[in-house]
Amino acid sequence: MRLIPELNSEAHVLIAGASRGIGLALCAALLARDDVAQVWAVARAASTSPELAALAAQYGDRLKPVDCDARNEQSLEALVSDDLAGCEHLHLVISALGILHQDGAKAEKGLAQLTLASLQASFATNTFAPILLLKHLLPLLRKHPATFAALSARVGSIGDNRLGGWYSYRASKAALNQLLHTASIELKRLNPASTVLSIHPGTTDTELSRPFQGNVPDGQLFEPAFSADRILEVVGAHGPADSGTFWDWNDKPIVW
């Protein structure tokens, strides 16, 4: 399967949140493909990540670790002007940015646990960072086939919310979905060969999900490598006609 629909050349790819979990697994899966020429692995401490260093030792200059905090616009400006200076076009960008109970965010069980700090932390990483990343990378997505995909979450679906709780996380992912859907409309005008996708990767064995894995049904907790492969399958299955849509790891549409 092609990395993204309509692409007939080797791909330039950028992964944000690349130093651990699903982002790291995506880097490994992409580098293992013959049709990927370059992977920029973006994270706050990408240059000191031993896992990314191990991939760089295996794949050489095809992997470029880049330090960048996507919550900071100056950092994003430097990413584009300096680290991506020689890149004319990105064919695929995947944002694996997300927190649930880190950096001040909390998985609230009820309104009494809700705080402004938790809301701000959740939105900063889950909502603002991915859309600011897209804003700054827009000049590199205006030609040829280009897909921007961000990892969302089924719990961000308003129509599928039957259990409540997790106020900050749910709301930040719902807001991300709205921003991505809105951006897909603008990108379609700028580049008819562009695609914007929200993807729910399933419950994956990462730091984000670890405290909550006891409630996951048997067979529904995925290894990062499995989730990465499924994400790439979804990306490869959906082109411009599906831009602005929301999919789960098993390529089933999710209600907004």
From TrEMBL:
Gene Ontology CC terms: cytoplasm
Organism: Pseudomonas graminis
GO MF entries: oxidoreductase activity
Pfam families in the record: adh_short
Superkingdom of source: Bacteria
The protein's name in its UniProt record: NAD(P)-dependent dehydrogenase, short-chain alcohol dehydrogenase family
Alphabetical list of InterPro entries matching this protein: Fungal_SecMetab_SDRs, NAD(P)-bd_dom_sf, SDR_fam
